[in-house]
Write a structure and sequence with these properties.
alpha/beta, seven-stranded parallel sheet, five-stranded parallel sheet, 12 helices, elongated
């Protein structure tokens, strides 16, 4: 699955509107319906919902969802937050539709003094801001977000947690971003979901299809793609019935140091699991017994050093080398890594401490 920028997502929306064709308000209805279907599968009708809506298109999604929940018998209170900016046309349409419902409970909030009480038993629908946000939230909207986060209620964010930037790490204070329990995002993952800094905000991400034009999405260029099972299946090679391990490559793993031989074991088992035919492990002498016992499938070459990797080795017979797990950053280990980089002309996988060493010796990459 491609990970698109917020600009590309808007372009996909517009292309779908023009070429399906579908009206923008109906595409919004489609998005709200997808959220509604997920919610009714996960929450009983006796749960109380509080919908917090901004006045942009994300708010329009929230109002459409509030209408659907109300029509299905859920107890819904909708809060429209006036925090500046002109209301979008699709927001206005969904506001009118919601107000036309009998007994629809709509409360407008214009100041911090009007912050509502939220029970920890409520289900919060966060529809304040969408993927177009490009500056930190503050003032009334910031106070609303902080109030929601302090409630300990379950929070469902529509498309993206409000306050989060779609294409960047948050870079803002945690009380300026909704801390979602669930994020119901449309069509594709947002890059923001994959930054460690954002983990406390996104919660569990559920991708909901809203029928954006797949042909258009396939033409979008992106530096980011989510690796899925279907991608792995494409590169799996069927093995011939009379082949043997020698037909499937010879890998070497350079790993481990005193007290860190577990890294060697884990890396070696992963290498074997992913299909290498032959595996040789280059380790310090202290790890010989551990390695031979834990991974008897692997051949072992011991370094001349007792506790760490200190010398390179003959690499002619290997198709690929993986180096780094648990090796440490000792000077002699760095020298061994440098020799491998200089002498081995086939693929090398750098991991863990190998990356740490290279980060201090960036010119070595010129040898690759």
């Amino acid at each position: 699955m491609k990970i698109l920028s917020s600009k590309q997502i808007r372009e996909a929306d517009q292309y779908t509107i023009e070429h399906e064709p579908v009206a923008a308000i109906d595409l919004m209805e489609r998005a709200a319906t997808a959220c509604f279907k997920w919610i009714v599968q996960h929450f009983d009708v006796d749960r109380s919902f509080k919908v917090f809506s901004g006045t942009g298109n994300n708010g329009g999604d929230g109002l459409a969802l509030a209408r659907m929940l109300h029509d299905s018998g859920y107890l819904v209170t909708t809060y429209i937050i006036h925090s500046g900016g002109v209301a979008s046309e699709d927001f206005k349409v969904n506001e009118s539709r919601l107000r036309n419902l009998k007994k629809a409970n709509i409360i407008e909030i214009d100041s911090i003094k009007e912050l509502p009480e939220i029970s920890q038993n409520d289900i919060i629908i966060d529809a304040l801001f969408g993927t177009g946000l490009n500056k930190p939230v503050k003032d009334l909207a910031g106070a609303i977000i902080e109030n929601i986060n302090n409630s300990e209620a379950k929070i469902i964010s529509i498309d993206i947690p409000s306050g989060l930037f779609a294409d960047l790490a948050s870079g803002v204070l945690s009380n300026q971003v909704i801390k979602s329990t669930y994020t119901l995002s449309f069509q594709v993952y947002k890059l923001a979901f994959f930054f460690a800094e954002n983990a406390e905000f996104v919660g569990e991400v559920i991708i909901l299809s809203i029928g954006l034009n797949e042909k258009f999405i396939s033409t979008c260029e992106s530096n980011y793609e989510l690796l899925e099972e279907k991608h792995i299946q494409r590169i799996l090679k069927k093995r011939k019935p009379f082949s043997h391990k020698g037909n499937y490559g010879h890998a070497a793993i350079v790993a481990g140091s005193f007290g860190k031989m577990g890294a060697t074991i884990l890396a070696s088992k992963a290498c074997l699991k992913t299909g290498t035919g032959l595996l040789t492990v280059h380790i310090p002498k202290c790890g010989y017994g551990i390695t031979q016992t834990s991974i008897p499938e692997a051949m072992v070459v011991c370094d001349e050093n007792e506790k760490t990797i200190s010398c390179s080795f003959k690499t002619d017979s290997y198709n690929v080398i993986g180096i780094g797990p648990g090796i440490g950053i000792a000077k002699e280990t760095a020298n061994a890594l440098k020799q491998i980089i200089q002498n081995f002309r086939k693929p090398i996988v750098f991991d863990a401490d190998a990356i740490n060493i290279i980060s201090e010796n960036k010119t070595w990459m010129d040898f690759v």
